[in-house]
Structure formats: structure tokens, C-alpha cells
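Two proteins, back to back. First:
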Amino acid sequence: MNRLPTYFVSHGGGPWPWMKEQFGGAFDQLEASLQEMARALPEKPKAVLVVTGHWEENAFTLSSSAAPGMVYDYSGFPEHTYHVKYPAPGAPELATRIQAMLQKGGVNAALDPQRGYDHGTFTVMASVYPDADIPVVQLSLRSDLDPKAHIDAGRLLAPLRDEGILIIGSGLSYHNLRMFNASATAASQAFDRWLQKALTKAPPREREQYLLHWDSAPSARVAHPREDHLMPLMVVVGAAYEEAGSCVYHEDFFGNIAVSSFRFGPPGQS
């Protein structure tokens, strides 16, 4: 069986896949990059583990429902976006197994049988696998947002990649909603240049040191006043800690804000 890569994706804004007409093509490049993810994989995953920047708990927590509902964790969007469905099945047995993997490594982990798919998950998955035919488990962030804890958790999850489980970290490479306009141009570009260097040019062990001290990067706290949308990156890097990174999506979003997504490990690695 081929070893699957891991991905960190910038998931866009709100329920954009259901608002393409209103956004006038603003998300076309992002959508194309997500569709390419499925085509680039060496085989169809048995399941997907999504580390979502929209869920935080005191301990790492896994969604364990067999049929997760929907969490419409956004506001101010058209009424129809509060009725969209992504009916992919859950995977309770996989969630329980991942919990055991984390606990065996000394990481406290819990299960949540009530948690539904939030938009960090369903917007991405609706683009990558629109048929909703692959089981999905969500992994929360740990609410202390400690980089090392998230990297270490990812490392414990690395064996899943050899079992046909695709690990996706869903966040944003730039997430400052108070500066989501032309005023963000310089800061977003400075932070993106640092990300590109850290993730695609630095050797893997050096890359980890960059990420442990991410808040020392240029414009780090402008790009991420709170690092919830960056923490999924730490998990997927931890799960691919010896493998190279590459940029799979980059654009100046809305013409001003540099955003990127990354893959760790080549798609065809065996």
C-alpha cells in the first residue's frame, strides 16, 4: 500500500462552495487545488482525518459519530448556507483507534459522539470528495494551542498514512479577519515568504524548529493574532516529520492577501 501524504489547506471563507455565484470566481483557484488533491493521490483513501481549526477542546478530541451532523459555525451568510449537507459517514472504530494511539503515546484524548462537521471540514471535503463516500473523522485542536503538543500528536498519528488514511489540516495560512483587505498585503506576504522557506526549503528537522518558534516570524502576530488556524499545520507536519514539503496552492486572495496550502510527502511515495 502506498504511503499517503499529509496536507495543510487554507480552507477559504465561510460556506464558499455554496456561494460561487456571489463570490464571482474568487475561490476558483482554491477549488481547483482541492480537486487536484484527490487526483494526485496514489489511491483513494479508506478514510480522512481532518484536523480542523474550528474545534478546540481541553484535550485532543475525535468526532466519533457514525453519522455526523452539521455545525454551521459562521454568521451573516445567506439562509441556504445553513441547510447545506455533507453526508459522509463517520468512522467510530477509527476514532476509537486514533484515541488509543494518542493515549499510548502519553497524549490525553477523548471522543465526542455528538460533534458534527464544521465548515473547516465540510467546505474542504465537499471540494475534494463531493460524492461524500469516504468516512471522515475530525480531530480537534488542544485549546492551549501549544505548537509542540500538536507536532507531537501528529507524530503519533503517522502510521495512519501507511493504512490508507489521509490526514488533512484545515486552517488558513493568514487569518486576521480585522485585516482582511489591502492593509494586509505587506504582512501576509512577509509571513507567507517565511512559511515557504520553513515548509519547502528547510530540512525537516530544521522545519520543526521554525514551527516551534513560529511567532518570531515576520508579521507573525499580524497574520495570526490567535493561532487557531495555524495549529492544524503543526499536526500534519508532525505526521510527516521526515518528509519534504511543497506548496500546492498559492494566490493573492482578493488581490491582496497571500495565502497558501502545502503537501508533505510526494503523492506517489510507497
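And the second protein:
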Amino acid sequence: MKSGIVLGGAMVLASVLFAHGQVAASDRFAAMVGELRPKAEAAGISPATFEAAFAGLTVDARVIALAAAQPEFTQTIGAYVASRANDRTVAAGRALAQRWAGELDGIERRFGVDRFVILALWAMESNYGQATGGSDVIRSLATLACCTSTRPDYFHDELMAALRILDQHEIAPRAMTGSWAGAMGQTQFMPSSYLANAVDGDGDGRRDIWTSVPDVLASIASYLAMHGWERTARWGYEVRLPAGFDFTAITPHEGGPVRGWQQLGIARPGGSSFPDDGAKAWLLLPAGAHGPAFLTLQNYWVIKTYNVSDAYTLAVGRLADRIRGEGALSTPWPPGERPLPRAVVLAMQQELVARGFPIDIVDGKIGPSSRSALRAFQASQGLSADGYPTAAVLARLGLPQP
């Protein structure tokens, strides 16, 4: 009986604390809206727009919970790419390429951006417009600005940008929907990106990334063009490395460009239009020495501005190539790969630093600095210096296998 009383008391206490947290968040939400009103008016946003934007809105507890979560990446890059560039998505992309061929012709002439990359980004961001998120963008951004500890100033600025969009009568307040984090419509633009990059593709005087496919396609192309897309160039190519390739002879993917790639024995892709040997390119080894290799061009980095993940960017490139009509990779992804848990990556980083291989940020995520440290450690151990955390690397560091 006593344990039941204790349990019941704990449940009551938890309910009280949750309710208190909700009240506190609601108070912060209301206070933030009150403080924002004169700032919005000073920025030229009409009182009518402001009132319509916040009419009936309250704090969104779901957004607070999602912002506090730290999901772990649970797929290898090969599995991620394969799951995005799958047969269903490729077939849908090819059908849509035919359906919107006329619009894509005009977009390519205007912006010089590869139509297949446009289609691939559309697929990645919203499944060709089928999954745009149903959150109220104003409510989400206001909640993130007032009630989460991560980048409140950033979300405050995005909220102001969203109000400018409403004040320009591009969309009605409650029709401005998107992800819980404020990314909008079929392109998943943040409001500031919308203001900078969205265009009217169908000539109706509005930039409608929610329901107008011509606007969606043209806005993606506009974004890429404004971020430095190189006309007539591809994002990159799969290449073949010679047996015993010396990874220390080049500056790898994260560090800088590869020149003279043919002199290093890297084979030109058969039948491709890859640029000459002096072209600026980067070697990408997403699964290490035993997986596929890519020479990526400037447009790879342009795609990466949409999402900084290499997995995402490579998935866009591969999906674009498959919609274009290309087949499977000539070098398959290594079988039996498993993603490293963040705790293992963190332990690896700590051990590398302890052994004198510096890493800028020890956070359980493998970035450029971690790969540089890995390459240096691998070279010191006589291993292939590909910057990939293999089982052999973990063993040499004295770490258990995941």
C-alpha cells in the first residue's frame, strides 16, 4: 500500500511540474509576442498583418519537445543514399520530368541549373510535394524563439522574415505551413531563404512554394543559381581508384581540391563528360577505401548549402543521376556496414586527441577535423589513410567494437 501511495504521489508531482512548465512557456510566449509587436511595426509590418498572424495562437508544446530531442543518425551513408535514390522515387521523378518538361526547359534556360538536380531536391525535401509538414509556421517559430534554448535569436529573425512574407500578401497566415522547425512548403525554405530565393514561376504575381509546382521548381533553381551553380557542369562522378592508391598523395574531400587526378591513377568514368585533368575537384570516400569513390565538382558544394550533410548531398546527386537514366554504382556499398553510435565516435575522438591528433570539436560527430585526425592516425599506423573509422582503426585505438 505504501509503494502505491509513493507512486501515486510521484505521478501527481510529475503532472504538477508538467503543468507548471506549460504555464511558464505560455507566459514566455505571450511576453515574446508583446515585445515583438512594436519591433514588427518599426520594421514596417502593418498592425493588421501582425494581428492576423498571431490571432488565437498559443505555445506549441510539441515543438518544445522536438527541439529538446537529440536524434542519432542510425543509418550508414550507403543505406541512407540507397533509401532515398530508390526505384519508386526514381520512377516518380522520371514521370514528373515528363509532366513538367516545358517548365523545366524554361527554368534551365533562365537559371542554368540541371533539371534532374531540381527534381531530386524536390523529392528529398517534400517527396515531390506530398510531405510538406502541417505545422503552423508562425506558431512554430514563435515557440522556438521564446521557449527553447537553441538559437533563439535565429528563430526570432526567421519569425520577422515570416511576418514580412505575410505583409507582402504572398500567403495567408494559417496557410503558411511547414515543418515543426519553420521550414516551409514543398521547397522547405526557411522564411529568410524564401525572401532571398523564391520566385514566381507561373506568372501569377505570387511566390507560392506551397501549391504551385512551377513556383517550386523555379525557386529551387533560383536558390542553387544564387549560391553559385556552375552552368553545364554536373555535381560529380563516380570514379575508380587504382589498387594500392596512396591516400596521402592528395588533399582529401574536406580539405581542398584535387588536381592532376589522372596522374594519381584515378580512372575517368567511362563515356562521361568529366572535365580535364586540371579541373578543380574533390575526392569523396563516403564509405572509406572499400566503398564507392566520387570526384565531386563545385556544384556538389552548392547542393550542400541546402543541407550541410554529405549523406544528404550525395543522395541528391545520386537520385538526380538515376532520374537522368543512369544505373547502379559500379562499386557497391560495403556489405554489413553498421553506423557507429555517437558514444563510440565520441570515445574515438577523445582517444585521438589524447594521442596527439587534434580535433576542433569533440562532439560525437565525424566532421572535417575528425577525418583529418583519423587520416593522420591511420598513416601513423600503416593503414589506408582514408579518414574512415574502420574496425581496424577502433582496434588500434583500443576501443571496443560496436
